[in-house]
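Researcher: Next sequence.
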Amino acid sequence: MSYQIELRHLRYFLAVAEELHFRKAADRLYISQPGLSRQIKQMENDLGVILFDRHNRKVVLTKTGEYLKKELQLNLKQLEDILDHAKLIQAGRKGQLKIGYVGSAMQNIIPDLLIKYREDHPDVVFSLKEMENQNQIDELLSFGIDIGFMRLEDVPKHLEKQTVLSDIFCVVLPEDHPINSKNFKSMAQFKEETFILFDPNYSASYYEKVMQIFKDSGFMPAVSHLTIHATSIYKLVANHFGISIVPKSLQNDAVKGVKFIDLNNIKQRTELSMVWNTGNRNPVLLQALDVMRKMKRKKA
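Model: Next structure:
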């Protein structure tokens, strides 16, 4: 059986499948609506299937269309990565590694990885993007990134995770706060304070762990601000909008106006994990995982 399907047909189909609206899909693709309709109809005729149920005011995917959308969202992305990889080889590069990360991973983990990796593989392009946990999960599942560094307990099927850092917590206080590392006894000393915390949407499991610290200390905090950036937390704390709790890996003694107290005597720890898709065939990813494992063994 011979199909006259081209890559553009697949992109056209995905645009309509995601928009469920021919005009919006045509605008997104910068082509005319009648032209897009003809291309989709031609694709259906060539394959001998019906991909959309067309009604007067709406477009609905058939079961066949739903299957094709799901598979193409995964496999078309991999095909595009293969073509991009070929272009990098032509330009004298050996490949690309796309990394998603939460902010604390950029303190030491990722810089150490890039330095070690470049020692043996200098011709690799790195793409780095700070992302929330769930966005990283979504991008890993769709092969939008190759590896993620995040804080979470469990990962979906097809993803693998490995702990790269077990972190204690620390309290962040304004520099002139009366409590310091010498007179600090327990978190209960802060029960009348307001707190600035990482948004639970950034990492629900991390937020729950922080809440457990408060529960174990006999109080629930008054939360004045939620944010996703440590720099925002430090700025707010320095200006007396509240105090905070962060992983020790985010501690930065160079930040002006704040001070840190390590919480060594509590049971809670937060783990930073390296996560990847077991179906990802990017050879650069396999090399990076090997480098990370060697780094972890040396630290152990």
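Model: The two ends are 57 Å apart (CA to CA). The chain has three domains: 7-76, 93-165+271-299, 169-268.
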